[in-house]
Write a structure and sequence with these properties.
Blueprint: E1 3-7, H1 12-25, E2 30-34, E3 47-50, H2 56-65, E4 68-73, H3 79-84, H4 86-107, E5 111-113, E6 116-117, H5 141-160, E7 164-165, E8 167-169, E9 171-173, H6 186-196, E10 200-202, E11 210-214, H7 215-227, E12 239-240, E13 244-246, H8 248-256, E14 264-266, H9 270-276, H10 285-291, H11 299-309
Parallel strand pairs: 1-2, 1-4, 2-3, 4-5, 5-7, 6-8, 8-12, 9-11, 10-14
Antiparallel strand pairs: 11-13
Length: 315
């Protein structure tokens, strides 16, 4: 059988995307990998393997031995963590992508998925309805690596015909995994604090608007893109993607409807500067036109869904 390999499956996105892919293709056809063996215990409905993505030979052997034809390469050091160890973040984010792209070329793999981010944008980018094509100039190592990665993806498609596809995710919010070191993580942690009856301290200012997306929409967008006919995927760097934009104050107010005693204070740290360099809102009309992207969740609908399910979810 031809198989799908997911690298970094135990992360925030990977945890839910892996389950969705296994549900579609069958667990025997999906291999979830992560560097942490214990993290793989959550995947009971698919194959698993421990993999350090920086071990190029181990990656190649796995692809060949298991007849892998598609790779979802999700492993990365995120924005806030990357600023604490920039050289490590650059090396992991960049070299691992090149390993995967080169392997796809050599082994003639069917499809590659690699996520980009709104972190590719910078302080000189138009902040409102940021267009698909505009000045970027990211000022974090995460954003720099994502911008460079976008160029490599398009290069491998144009030069070698590698069918690589990508989305520029906004901040992703889910309740099935804990925050992973990103600047938008406050929008995950805030729900945990509300349910625990604890005061929440935001590391962003109350009026810091950022593009955001609920995880079910992110999974839907990823699978819609990967299932789209090749001729409809017209952008091979990375597609802008959007659902909603809100501030810490607005997400707090949406939670307070359900938890009236919930309280918040604001103590901006180094992540505020990162957030200030990113857009307030995103124009994703290319994705909507090319392959029919539509989001399902508003802030209010997302908050109601998370507060309904998170209390019974254990970590």
């Amino acid at each position: 059988m031809e198989r799908i390999l997911i690298i970094g499956a135990a992360g925030q996105l990977g945890s839910e995307l892996t389950q969705a892919i296994a549900n579609i293709y069958g667990g025997d056809n999906v291999i979830a990998t992560d560097i942490n063996p214990k993290a793989l215990e959550k995947f009971e409905n698919c194959r698993t393997a421990v993999l350090d993505v920086m071990d190029k030979e181990a990656l190649k052997d796995l692809v060949k031995d298991q007849n892998v034809k598609q790779i979802y390469h999700l492993a990365a050091v995120l924005s806030a963590t990357g600023e604490k160890m920039p050289l490590f973040a650059w090396n992991l984010n960049m070299e691992s992508l090149l390993f995967v792209l080169e392997l796809a070329k050599e082994e003639k793999l069917d499809k590659i998925y690699w996520p980009s981010s709104i972190a590719v944008f910078g302080p000189n980018t138009p902040k409102v309805n940021t267009p698909q094509y505009c000045v970027k100039e990211p000022n974090t190592v995460y954003g720099i690596s994502k911008q460079a990665g976008e160029r490599w993806c398009e290069y491998y498609f144009q030069k070698y015909g590698v069918d690589v596809r990508s989305l520029r995710y906004p901040g992703l919010i889910g309740y099935k995994s804990l925050p992973g070191g990103g600047t938008t993580d406050y929008a995950v942690d805030i729900y945990h604090k509300a349910i625990a009856g604890e005061h929440f301290v935001s590391f962003l200012k109350e009026d810091s608007y950022l593009p955001m997306m609920y995880m079910p929409d992110a999974i839907k967008a990823t699978l819609d893109l990967m299932h789209a006919p090749k001729e409809q995927v017209k952008i091979r760097s990375s597609y802008n993607l959007s659902a909603m934009s809100f501030s810490p104050k607005e997400i707090f107010e949406s939670i307070k409807v359900h938890y009236p005693q919930f309280s918040i204070s604001y103590k901006p740290d180094f992540r505020q500067e990162i957030a200030d360099s990113w857009p307030d809102s995103i124009d994703d009309s290319c994705a909507r036109k090319d392959w029919g992207w539509q989001h399902d969740y508003s802030l209010e609908k997302m908050t109601a869904d998370i507060l309904k399910h998170l209390p019974s979810y254990s970590f």
